[in-house]
């Protein structure tokens, strides 16, 4: 019994000594460092109002597909994993039409060429009439579609999750060509659609490169690394470009999970500037700023002409801030608790915060005619206007 009591005392003493040297304190500090930042209080300098709310159906939940609506010709088009596709009036939120579907719709929608196009978790592609919601054609790609299809110049471009871009004839759904990029061993879950320019389609890839393809036949024109996938482990090497690049005139802006952003001369593929700030979400383009959110949750305002960081907003650390939208004089991101954060474009300070529901916002908000629309993982839509 004496030996047992002595051992217990010794163990208790060791525990106490570990406490003296900060063992428990270090664990607590590590735990705090990995938890989402608590929202900071601030005095609002702007006011926003909720214009309307609606449901797109049963949302993506934990699939990680980052569903978001698209706005075209005064209508908001939204899809859900269960619930089909719906069209709403941008100003009022009134439902214009609904297309029922048993498919698990995960990619899109995209709108253009008089069509609304969505993809499914099994690679089905459905094109609907934008005016009525009637089905025009169906097609198939080899893998799940979690990015919105893009339409233009008589074609529909569908990016599937195996690194393939497939071009379909917008009128008939006939496949014209496809192009494939080999995937790295480990990638960030989620990707976004390509962007179109005159004669080009630009695709951000999971290996950190940006490719320019000829629209006519999918022929590669140039391929440029935005970020180098270096590091000792596959996790270290992840460099995905998962947000749709932004094209303004002849300048293309792309951002990588490797915390790099680049401005590129689109016709030639020549780099204009590079920045060490960036992330996998869609960047937001303002008059004089490019706004990006990095993988740690910081939001950065970069000078458009040089890439120099004008400001940083670090208060959203580990809150899974997604793609950036520009809403008037503000940059807007959503987070994992359903909050929307409006930040001033001139200095990055918080201007106003509103909650769009309890569910996470993973897709980037979209803006048209002064109205911002966002979709959460439950499939709920909300529209907001700056007062």
TrEMBL record:
| Function, in words | Part of the outer membrane protein assembly complex, which is involved in assembly and insertion of beta-barrel proteins into the outer membrane.
Intracellular or extracellular location(s): Cell outer membrane
Which residues does the UniProt record annotate as the domain Pyrrolo-quinoline quinone repeat?
Answer: 82-313
The organism sits in which domain of life? Bacteria
User: What SMART domains has UniProt attached to this entry?
Assistant: PQQ
Pfam families, alphabetized = PQQ_2
Known InterPro entries for this protein?
A: BamB, PQQ_b-propeller_rpt, PQQ_rpt_dom, Quinoprotein_ADH-like_sf, WD40/YVTN_repeat-like_dom_sf
Quaternary state and partners of this protein?
Part of the Bam complex.
Q: Which PANTHER family match?
A: CELL SURFACE PROTEIN, OUTER MEMBRANE PROTEIN ASSEMBLY FACTOR BAMB
**Name by which UniProt lists this protein:** Outer membrane protein assembly factor BamB
Q: Does the keyword Ribosomal protein apply?
A: no
Keywords, ordered alphabetically:
Cell outer membrane, Membrane, Signal
Q: Does the keyword Membrane apply?
A: yes
**Similarity comment:** Belongs to the BamB family.
């Amino acid at each position: 019994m004496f030996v047992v009591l002595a051992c217990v005392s010794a163990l208790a003493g060791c525990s106490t000594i570990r406490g003296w040297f900060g063992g428990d304190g270090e664990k607590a500090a590590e735990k705090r460092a990995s938890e989402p930042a608590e929202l900071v209080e601030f005095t609002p300098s702007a006011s926003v109002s909720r214009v309307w709310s609606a449901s797109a159906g049963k949302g993506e939940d934990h699939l990680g597909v980052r569903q978001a609506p698209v706005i075209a010709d005064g209508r908001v088009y939204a899809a859900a994993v269960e619930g089909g596709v719906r069209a709403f009036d941008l100003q009022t939120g009134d439902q214009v039409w609904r297309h029922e579907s048993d498919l698990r719709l995960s990619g899109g929608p995209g709108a253009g060429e008089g069509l609304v196009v969505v993809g499914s978790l099994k690679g089905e592609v459905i094109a609907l009439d934008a005016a009525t919601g009637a089905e025009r054609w169906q097609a198939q790609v080899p893998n799940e579609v979690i990015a919105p299809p893009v339409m233009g110049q008589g074609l529909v471009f569908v990016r599937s999750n195996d690194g393939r871009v497939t071009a379909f004839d917008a009128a008939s759904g006939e496949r014209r060509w496809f192009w494939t990029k080999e995937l790295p061993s480990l990638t960030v879950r989620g990707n976004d659609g390509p962007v179109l320019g005159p004669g080009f389609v630009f695709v951000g890839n999971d290996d950190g490169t940006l490719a320019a393809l000829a629209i006519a036949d999918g022929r590669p024109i140039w391929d440029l690394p935005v970020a180098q996938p270096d590091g000792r482990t596959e996790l270290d090497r992840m460099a995905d470009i998962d947000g749709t690049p932004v094209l303004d005139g002849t300048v293309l802006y792309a951002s990588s999970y490797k915390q790099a952003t680049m401005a590129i001369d689109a016709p030639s593929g020549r780099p204009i500037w590079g920045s060490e700030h960036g992330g996998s979400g869609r960047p937001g383009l303002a008059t004089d700023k490019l706004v990006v959110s990095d993988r740690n949750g910081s939001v950065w305002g970069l000078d458009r002409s040089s890439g120099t960081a004008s400001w940083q907003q670090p208060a959203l650390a580990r809150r899974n801030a997604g793609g950036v939208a520009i809403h008037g004089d503000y940059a807007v991101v959503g987070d994992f608790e359903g909050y929307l954060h409006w930040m001033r474009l001139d200095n990055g300070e918080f201007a106003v915060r509103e909650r769009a529901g309890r569910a996470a916002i993973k897709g980037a908000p979209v803006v048209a005619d002064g109205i911002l629309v966002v979709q959460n993982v439950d499939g709920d839509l909300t529209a907001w206007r700056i007062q």
